[in-house]
Structures are given as C-alpha cells and as structure tokens.
Design a protein that fits this description.
Helix content is 24%, strand content 29%. By secondary structure, it is an alpha/beta fold. It folds into 3 domains: 174 residues, FAD/NAD(P)-binding domain, CATH 3.50.50; 116 residues, FAD/NAD(P)-binding domain (3-Layer(bba) Sandwich); 85 residues, 2-Layer Sandwich (Enolase-like, domain 1), CATH 3.30.390. It is globular.
C-alpha cells in the first residue's frame, strides 16, 4: 500500500500515527509546501515572545520521519490531485502515486478587500513560522503596530510582539475581543489584562481605507502605524479536492471515517467540515485537538480499520499574559456562573447535559468538563452541584470513574 499525505501539521501527523497503528511497514510520503520539520503552529507567538525556541516548538522529534518510515517531501507544493490516475502532481512537475491519499492542507489567511491595502509596504499575516520570522524582522523598538482582527490570531500575535514595538493597537468590528470564543464578561477580563500590558483596542470599528501608513477607520478616527498585521481570519484550503471533483461545502465534506467523495481520498483537520456534537451542526472547527483526532481516524481508515470520530467540539485553551482561558462546546443554553478569587466560570446546560463551558483564571481540571460534553453524560447521573463548584472525580459514580480512568477503579 502506498500512502500519501498532503500537509505536515496536526492532522497530517495524526494520519501518520493512525496508519502506523494498523500498518507498520507500507511506505508513507508526506508532501508539505513549508520547508520545516513538523512544528506546533500555536507556539509561534511564544517564539516571538521569547517563551520558547524552534527546537521546543517541534511537534515531533527530529528523527520522527525516519522512525515512522515516512519520506518527507518538504518545500514541495501539491498542485493537482488526479483521482483517476491516483497521483498527486507537484509544482516541479513530479507525480507522486498513491493508493490512499490524505488531504490535510489546513487553512490560509483571509484578507478581505480593503481600500489602499496595496499602498502598505510592511504588511503581514500571522499563521506560519515563516510569517513569524518575517514579522519579527520588520519590527524595531520604535515600531507602531496595527493589528486588524481581535480573534485568537490577532490577540496572540499582540501578546507575542508587544515587547518588540513602541505601541500596538488592535481594531475589530466586533464589540468585544475573541467574540467566537468568549462571552462579554470573559472578554472584558482578558481585554483588561492586555490593556495593562500597553495594548490599545478600537472595537465596534473597522478600517475604511489605508493611506500608506495611516489607517482611516469607519468612525472617522485615524491610526498611524509602521507595521500592519492582518488577522481577520482563515479559510480552509479546499481547492485541490474541489478541482478534482470532490464535494466541498466551505470545507471538504467527509464521512465519520474522514472519507471524501473521491475514491481512496481522505481529508482531516482545518480544511474539512466537522460535525459539532455540542450543537448538532456541521461547521469548520479549526482546532488542533480535533485536527489530530480526525487525522488519526483517517489514517486508521486508510489502513483498513474503520473507527469513526464522532466527538468533535469547538475547544480553545491558552493564556494572555498569564491569564489562563479554556472554552469548549456551545455557550447557548442555561448557564451556571461561578465567580471566585478573580476567576470566572460559566457552565452551559441543555436537555439535561453539559454542552459548553468557559473558564478564565482557574482552569484546573477543565478536562472533566470536556469529557462530560464529549461523552454527552446525563447530568442526573453525577453530582452536578459538586462538579459546578469544583470539578473532581468524586462527583461521578464508581462505574463512571472506572470508565474515565480506563478501567482502573477509583
């Protein structure tokens, strides 16, 4: 069996490891446009902040490809999938044949039409290691930085480069930061922490046009800058599958075993559409844990072991200048809120089950809440009052504890 994977991040690595769980010997070729060894993309802000280095950013050890029997084709761009001939065409004209193919192409930065953007000389995205290096090279201690976008990419970029520049302003048309992740109260806590570190915000506003190094906002305000970061959002890289005739609905459409509509072609990660069990809706879930699990599922399926992945939920975990944040699932439902010692907790219930939660500050044992959502555990089967105040295994029945601990009695 000849396996080929397009991509080199979480979903691709999950694919390698899923294949190797079933098939220890067949060759795997891994194609990546980036020239780098697999690394953890969420850590690029910490690299610029000085909290990590490139060696500690590695997603797997340096000898990973060799040990896993993978032929890495790094710095090679896939330009076409031919499902009839079962080949992947590379930009240099080479064809890579496959028996099973995994598309794990991830996402690309989304840059909306913005008047005058072509006049801005120093403009950057913030999604890859090369983006981080290019941005760092452009910054000086006198740089005034403007970031368009107050989502995860924009806010983490701001945290990573604040010490490298003179001033930093974030503009977003939403009324609060991280609108897809946090509610109003949680967003205010994070915003105050970032403002305490010298980051300014212009919310409920947007850029009307650029005039070289001057941003004219819809409100009439003007922001001079030296360096611009565009962090408006990302879009799935679906074009290879779509051009080959595969079904795409914003993301690549797959079944629960990550098969696409093309024969012998699978897809996983940020380029795909997922089924969110917390809402029951199909959507793009550009989240590393789901990407890895989808990739692992695809790899096992490619090698002949069909084990569906049916526990996808939105989930984000991180921090902002030491203030920890974890969110997961759906925040629409009946809420229970706990405020204690500067921390904020919101648990969201619907139809007798936990469907979402949000933690700011104290995020200990967030995994218990995540497990309740993924397993769709009836709250009537546990001590919810105890779980609400302080998550602990004692709130579960003996049988549930044994199941959660992999059969170990607790």
């Amino acid at each position: 069996m000849r396996y080929v994977i397009i991509g080199n991040s979480a979903a691709a690595i999950g694919g390698v490891e899923g294949i190797r769980r079933v098939d220890a010997a067949s060759p795997i070729a891994l194609i990546s446009a980036e020239p780098h060894h697999t690394y953890s993309r969420p850590l690029i802000s910490y690299l610029l902040w000085g909290k990590t280095d490139e060696e500690r950013m590695l997603y797997r050890p340096r000898d990973y490809y060799e040990k896993m029997g993978v032929t890495p084709l790094l710095g090679c761009t896939a330009t076409k999938i031919d499902p009839a001939k079962q080949i992947v065409r590379l930009a240099d004209g080479r064809d890579v044949p496959y028996d099973k193919l995994l598309v794990a192409t991830g996402s690309r930065p989304f840059v909306p039409p913005m008047a005058g953007l072509d006049q801005v000389e120093k403009k950057f995205s913030f999604l890859t290691l090369d983006d981080a290096h290019a941005l760092a090279a452009a910054l000086t201690p006198l740089s005034r930085v403007l970031i368009v976008g107050a989502g995860l990419i924009g806010t983490k970029c701001a945290e990573g480069i604040r010490h490298l520049c003179r001033s930093l302003t974030i503009v977003d048309m939403a009324p609060r930061i991280l609108p897809a992740v946090l509610d109003e109260e949680a967003a205010a806590l994070v915003q105050r922490r970032m403002e305490a570190h010298g980051i300014a915000f212009r919310l409920s506003d947007s850029v009307a046009r650029f005039e070289k190094n001057l941003a004219h906002l819809q409100s009439g305000a003007e922001i001079p800058f030296d360096v611009l970061v565009l962090a408006v959002g990302v879009r799935p890289r679906t074009e290879l599958v779509e051009a080959a005739g595969g079904k795409v609905e914003r993301g690549i459409v797959t079944d629960a075993c990550q098969r696409t509509s093309l024969p012998n072609v699978y897809a996983a990660g940020d380029c795909t559409r997922s089924h969110d069990i917390s809402t029951g809706a199909d959507k793009i879930l550009a989240i590393l844990p789901n990407a890895y699990l989808q990739g692992e599922t695809a790899g096992r399926s490619m090698a002949g072991e069909d084990v569906p992945f049916d526990k996808a939920i939105p989930m984000n975990a991180g921090g902002f200048f030491g203030l920890h944040v974890v969110s997961a699932g759906d925040l629409n439902g009946e809420s229970d809120i706990v405020r204690q010692g500067g921390s904020y907790k919101r648990l969201v219930r619907r139809d007798g089950r936990l469907v979402g939660f949000l933690l700011v500050g104290d995020v200990s044992r967030a995994g218990i809440y995540t497990a309740l959502i993924r397993e769709q555990t009836p709250l009537s089967s546990i001590d919810y009052e105890l779980i609400r105040e302080k998550p602990q295994l004692a709130a579960f029945s003996r049988a549930e504890r044994a199941h959660m601990l992999g059969g170990v009695q607790a």
